From TrEMBL:
Enzyme class: transferase
Family membership noted in the UniProt record: Belongs to the purine/pyrimidine phosphoribosyltransferase family.
Keyword set includes Transferase: yes
Protein's UniProt name: Adenine phosphoribosyltransferase
């Protein structure tokens, strides 16, 4: 089954980038064509009926899955990036990570008011990254109610936090006990 193929392709690194963190590395999924393809197929199958206008992917690993999914769904792709990476006029939003804080930015002209947006990232932990991404989209007038991930760490509670922010998440595989 393709979900198991994907889960088996994820590598776990203990104590990276800090002691106590079990790092779930999605780059080993990308290295395996059938697992990478299965990710895009499952994300497409789950979201194809919603008729989104844009896919937003968050730096850096959200780009790896968001851009090929946008091509599959026949819609545009918008990158949300770390500060000072986007060249045109941006808006910014701060957020907390499982292991630190950071800031994200989006081009002001990337979302049109009323655009239906699907957010894509590799992994859902606290949900902070996706909530900050949703805040950016909503500040530009976009409608965002769905987010798709390859990996979820359910014990950290991101899915509930996203639901409280009005976002339903779809995760291909779960790693419990993190
Ligand atoms: O649900 P959260 O607690 O917000 O954590 C998930 C986020 O953390 C990781 O990115 P990271 O910030 O490490 O950035 P990178 O992809 O640029 O390495 C991951 O790719 C998600 O974007
Ligand atoms: N445990 C984890 N593994 C990989 N990426 C992450 N981003 C936040 N937490 C993570």
């Amino acid at each position: 089954m393709s979900k198991e193929l994907i889960k088996d392709a994820v590598t776990t690194i203990v104590d990276y980038p800090k002691p106590g963190i079990l790092f779930r590395d999605v780059t080993s999924v990308l290295q395996q064509h059938d697992a990478f393809q299965a990710c895009i197929d499952l994300l497409k199958e789950h979201h194809v009926e919603h008729q989104f206008d844009k896919i937003v992917g968050t730096e850096a690993r959200g780009f790896l899955f968001g851009a090929p999914l946008a091509l599959e769904l026949g819609v545009g792709f918008v990158p949300v990036r770390k500060p000072k990476k986007l060249p045109r006029e941006v808006i910014s939003e701060s957020y907390e990570l499982e292991y630190g804080t950071d800031e994200l930015e989006i081009h002001k002209d990337a979302i049109n008011p009323g655009d239906k947006v699907l957010m894509i990232d590799d992994l859902l932990a606290t949900g902070g990254t996706m909530i900050a991404t949703a805040n950016l989209i909503r500040r530009l007038g976009g409608i965002v109610e769905y987010a798709g991930f390859i990996i979820s760490l359910p014990d950290i509670g991101g899915e509930k936090r996203l639901l409280e922010a009005g976002i339903t998440s779809y995760c291909i595989c779960e790693f419990e006990g993190d």
